[in-house]
Amino acid sequence: MKKIKLASVLFILLCFTLAPLQSQEIIIKEDVFLGMMFSTDNGDTFHNVGYGNTKLKKAFSTNSESLQHYNKFKRIKPLSMGFAIAGGLLIGWPLGTYLGSNVWTSTETILLSAGLGIAITGLIIDALANRNLKQAAKIYNNSSRASLQFNIFVAHGAHKYNGAMVQYSF
Length: 170
What we know:
By secondary structure, the protein is of the alpha+beta class. It has helices at 2-18, 54-60, 64-101, 106-153, and strands at residues 27-31, 35-39, 47-48, 156-161, 164-169. It has four helices and five strands. The strands form two sheets. Strands 1-2-3 form a three-stranded antiparallel sheet, with helices on one face. The protein has a two-stranded antiparallel ribbon with strand order 4-5. The protein is elongated.
């Protein structure tokens, strides 16, 4: 009976000592109006990815492959925005000219066609950028799960809580 109590106490202590080994999982979601959003607290709160977000970069910096995909996302995203703005201008200019003068010329057709092509190119580049961000999160989450499993099965060390020392070795 004493062995069962001792084993259960050791198991509870082991659970508390392994709790700090849990890493945060990054959840990425795509919002139609707000763009790419991320969460590090199991989806309770989502934050805009944005260009100056250091929290996400800091999390990805623990894994070089996920950081590489994140940096690719950061490089490609402004390019897609540039294409979207240029395409929107080339679409809006001929439509505005037509609404103002009720005359449609071949110049407006060329500008509208070019604008549509450039805007579609921007959408494709944006999809590639978003795919890189999702891939970075997937790699990060898989690597953090693998390291957590490794730490659970090969556990040895000592932790000190409020002056009490707990040692374990497997």
